Amino acid sequence: MGSGDAFTSLVPLILLFVVFYFLIIRPQRKRQQEQIRMQNSLTPGSRVMTTTGLFANVVAIDGDDVILEIAPGVESRWVKAAIGRVVTPAAAPGGGESDERGDGGAEETGSERVDSTDGDGKETGGAKS
Questions:
Q1: pLDDT tens per residue across all 129 residues of the chain
Q2: Which of 16, 49, 63, 105 has the fewest beta carbons under 10 Å from its own?
Q3: Considering the domain 43-96 in this protein, what is its CATH number?
Q4: Distance in angstroms (rounded) separating the CA atoms of residues 60 and 102
């Protein structure tokens, strides 16, 4: 009887591990493999966004390094792992070139910018820009 009780007490622990594997570990591995595939498929001329949010064009690839043009005539060396995603024109705000100003594309046109909630989930009022 002692061995049967030990087995039944291990079943929930084993089930918990299996659920943990399928809900957390496996999807994370898939995302990681997709990220590596994307980084290995970079080509010069690609428009990319780094993991820090910098938009740039790939100029050259040198092993694990990528040379990015962050402004006309300004090049910077980055490791491939710092490339977060390849930006396509459809993924850029407004369907055109990406906004590199860092203000989220907001323009001073007299329109209202409304924040619907604050950090606590409470409604807040809008603010004129």
A1: 556 788 888 999 999 999 988 899 989 999 999 999 999 999 999 999 999 999 999 999 998 999 999 999 999 999 999 999 999 876 545 544 444 444 444 434 343 343 434 445 544 454 444
A2: 63
A3: 2.30.30
A4: 25
Rounded CA separation 53/51 (Å): 5
Concatenated DSSP letters of 68-127 = EEEETTEEEEEEGGGEEEE--TTTSGGGSSPP-SSSTT---SS-EE---B-TTS-B---E
Tokens 């064009």 — which residue? 57
> CB of 58 within 8 A of CB of 66?
yes
